[in-house]
């Protein structure tokens, strides 16, 4: 049994397979072909934080595969009243086939997984958001081919999304250039080595964006960090993706954002709603790539 708790839990070969499968599943759906290998299977989804995309993409994807998805907001379950996560994992994993968890510390999902009889997927923690970056790379490669050797410029917070880009850079062999204000530098939590060929940090967003193939950003106040809102809004004022910043990257560069976006804060409307933006494909591809992951974790590799 496998879990998907961090981006590095799958190998490069596995991602290659998953992307091929995601493209097949996307094509089947577009063609109106019913493909329901998971009839009778149940996905439990535990949300300790808000969500639009993650909930809809998992729930719709599971239904399309013939299974059922069960939404649980932790505040409406006994988890919200202090039931230990280990006990919740024991119980839920005896009644369902696969579980997605969105929570706070990575250690919570790890404890859940240790006590689960079924595969567990990370739907976002404070530290990582693996499903997001899988969809992001799939989206880039769908249009522009392999991401290997390319440059990704991250403008903004060193958060769950950028930390996942970092793990992806090592696996897919591209370079991550991160620009953030002083005091918000990336801390590597996975004990892996990231050389200068894979990762460099900058203060100046224009230096990070120079010649990049992908420019990407995220909210400056992630869920769970609301108490820091005032300070962060001030600190991140100069870390907005503008048309000028996109021009520094070049006309072939694409813009990605995991969403939800805050126009006029981390990105200007002209960029996110402009011709270089792939954000709607990116959001849709959450569903196709996650379907491939669910299928893989439950049924293994599908031949042909
Ligand atoms: N990108 C993302 O995970 O969006 P949600 O918070 O809406 O799920
Ligand atoms: N970094 C953001 C991502 C939201 C999808 C957060 O954790 O709130």
TrEMBL record:
Presence of the UniProt keyword Transferase in the record: yes
Q: Where does L-ornithine bind?
A: 160, 218, 222-223
Q: Which UniProt keywords apply?
A: Cytoplasm, Transferase
Catalytic activity reads: carbamoyl phosphate + L-ornithine = L-citrulline + phosphate + H(+)
Principal localisation:
cytoplasm
Task: Supply the InterPro entries for this chain.
Answer: Asp/Orn_carbamoyltranf_P-bd, Asp/Orn_carbamoylTrfase, Asp/Orn_carbamoylTrfase_sf, Asp_carbamoyltransf_Asp/Orn-bd, Orn/put_carbamltrans, OTCase_ArgI
Q: What residues bind carbamoyl phosphate, as annotated?
A: 51-54, 78, 102, 129-132, 258-259, 286
Q: Where in the cell is it found?
A: Cytoplasm
Gene3D superfamilies noted in UniProt: Aspartate/ornithine carbamoyltransferase
Q: Which pathway does it serve?
A: Amino-acid biosynthesis; L-arginine biosynthesis; L-arginine from L-ornithine and carbamoyl phosphate: step 1/3
Domain called Aspartate/ornithine carbamoyltransferase Asp/Orn-binding: residue spans = 148-296
Keyword Transferase listed: yes
Query: What's this chain's function?
Result: Reversibly catalyzes the transfer of the carbamoyl group from carbamoyl phosphate (CP) to the N(epsilon) atom of ornithine (ORN) to produce L-citrulline.
Can you name this protein? Ornithine carbamoyltransferase
Organism for this UniProt entry: Silvimonas iriomotensis
